[in-house]
Specification:
alpha/beta; five-stranded parallel sheet; binds ribose-5-phosphate; seven-stranded mixed sheet; 14 strands; about 300 residues
Length: about 300
């Protein structure tokens, strides 16, 4: 197996390589003055299973193109197979037509993956369980929930004073799964309303009883609006400790600042998305997906 990394999350690729007792193979991603990329893999891959680590985080277009070029380079150089490890799958929220006239952007991306001979995709905590259906190539849908459940147990949170929270109705399946992992820890759901035109979120109703400690579980933080509003609403209902477990720290614009200034005590995320030092904040805790990914590849 030969492991390559695009530019979006080299530290994760290095950690996966350590887990697999191998090295990240060299490649060059040259950026021309106009922003175009020229990719060259610099290792022999003839008859090898090639793995490319590249979460397609913002700027998703650039990271997708790097992935496509790396896959193309590997196949042209004789690779037997190409597996794309895309822990965070960009454009996943555009998996169907929400309003007349919209594109199904994710389907365009999957078609392109297929056209550059990517054989398999591995991703984590997709926004809906229907997303793998958009894929015409094998897709392994993994989850950070077992990692989160272990951390919650390690912290000793449970009993009558802790409740899990899904900050929107779309997360019910996710919250039921982690509740089962935690010996049927009780959960509540929040009805969230998002204005599709502005992206603005409002928490409409909390369904269930709030206890001393609440543990919000979600798939991603982008603007931070969902978590900040959910934490406010939960505190208003009497929660005294608010913890957050989210797989993908996309952290667009000023999300780190609004999370640090929010009613949340700690925000646990994974390294599916690289968060540079200057975007990290005191309430942030990062858990690594590398052992899980290595296990799936090994
Ligand atoms: C939405 O349905 C997702 O599960 C997340 O709650 C959402 O994408 C988070 O986005 P933001 O941080 O911008 O509110």
């Amino acid at each position: 197996m030969k492991l390559f990394s695009g530019s979006s999350n080299r530290p994760l690729a290095e950690k996966i390589a350590i887990e697999l007792k191998t090295k990240v193979s060299p490649s060059e991603i040259f950026v021309f003055p106009d922003g175009e990329r020229r990719i060259q893999i610099q290792d022999t891959v003839v008859d090898e299973d090639v793995v490319i680590i590249q979460p397609t985080t913002p700027p998703a277009e650039i990271h997708y193109f790097e992935l496509f070029f790396l896959a193309d380079a590997a196949k042209r150089s004789g690779a037997k197979s190409v597996t794309a490890v895309v822990p965070y799958l960009g454009y996943q929220r555009q998996d169907h037509v929400f309003r007349d006239g919209e594109a199904v952007s994710l389907e365009v991306i999957v078609n392109t993956m297929q056209s550059v001979s990517i054989d398999k995709v591995i991703s984590f905590d997709l926004h809906t369980i229907k997303i793998p259906e958009v894929f015409s190539i094998p897709m392994l849908h993994l989850s950070a929930l077992p990692l989160f459940a272990r951390e919650i147990q390690k912290q000793g949170w449970g009993g009558l004073d802790t409740v899990l929270v899904s900050p929107d109705m779309g997360g019910i399946r996710r919250i039921k799964i982690i509740s089962e992992m935690l010996k049927d820890m009780p959960y509540v759901t929040i009805e969230k309303n998002r204005d599709l035109a502005t992206g603005h979120v409002e928490m409409e109703e909390i369904r269930g009883e709030i206890t001393h400690r609440v543990v919000i579980v979600d798939d991603m933080i982008s603007s931070g609006g969902t978590i900040v509003k959910a934490a406010q609403a939960l505190r208003a209902k009497g929660a005294k400790e608010v913890y957050v477990f989210v797989t993908h720290p996309v952290f667009s614009s000023d999300a780190p600042k609004i999370l640090q200034d929010s009613a949340v005590d700690k925000v646990y995320v994974t390294d599916s998305v690289f968060v540079p030092k200057e975007r990290q904040f005191p309430k942030l805790r990062i858990l690594s997906l590398a052992p899980v990914i290595a296990g799936a590849l090994g």
